[in-house]
Predict the structure.
Amino acid sequence: MRDLETGVAVVSVSDWRIVFENGRFFQWCPPNGDADGPLDSRLSNFRADRARDRIKSNRSYRQDFEVREGARSTFLEITMRAFEGGEEYAVVECRDMTAQKRAEFMLESYSEVSERNTRELQKEKDRVERLLLNIMPRSVYEEMKEYGTVTPQRYDNATILLLDFVDFTEMAISREPGELVAELNDIFSAFDRIVEMFGCERIKTMGDGYMCVAGLPESAPDHAADMARVALRLRRYLDRRNAAHTRTWNCRIGIATGPVIGSIVGIQKYVYDIFGPGVNLAARMECMSESMRITVSAETHNLLRDDFVMEERGTYPIKGFGETELFYLEAEKERTTIRRENRM
């Protein structure tokens, strides 16, 4: 016994005249005015020639179509095959596929939502990764991502640079805050590009202060020279900027070489930071420096004197370090510049 939800009809293949149809077929495929209208007038988009060719070659013909009753849609599938015993007549079966179509639509919608959520999740992961790489070196980020924590590391050979701006407090009081922060952001963004160009790491900014380091987390044999080149280009950038602007930004720069410890600091608002004798000495060098000058410690001077122009400043008492000889970094020697350019 056939399923009551199946519409059945017998049609003449030559002219598509309906010989027999049950009530369900009549309900789903009603005539358009003419009660004796042929099948091709009752099915929308019916491909009569293709259906006839397939039946005559003893193959079935299938077609999906939609029937609308007001706001409600019914999705139907017809299957047509030659009547047993000849090709003159064909049996047409019509089934309601609405539930299946809705399930397919829901599955497709779910797939689209899932793909969209996956894309959004990946975008968010990429954004978080960019933010984290702005506050810690990549190797530290990779360790944190893999293990969920970062082991503090001691670095015996690192060169640290600290920079701040002359009369920044007065600038902060006298200038409009938005304008001041915008200019400071432009300057620090340029500093970041210079630091990255020489393989160094920007550690942090502190108000108008800027800290970067060479020689960690990956060791670098030329860490002092790389940092010296960074310092000279930071100063050159400010010189050129000041020449093109009415408002000037003058800085003090201090550089020191020594041991430091690098680690993630904090739990909720964590940052990657360095501390130790090298950082303390660099901070003293910055305080002892003068406007648009680069002051370096004796240890750094010993690593740079063959390739850079240095100027003696004399010996000064430095808190925590005693009597310390200081030097100004002036420029890179020409022969070193040529060799480096050839290497690049």
Remarks:
- The mean pLDDT is 85.
- The chain has three domains: 6-96, 103-133, 140-343.
- Residues 114 and 120 are 10 Å apart (CA to CA).
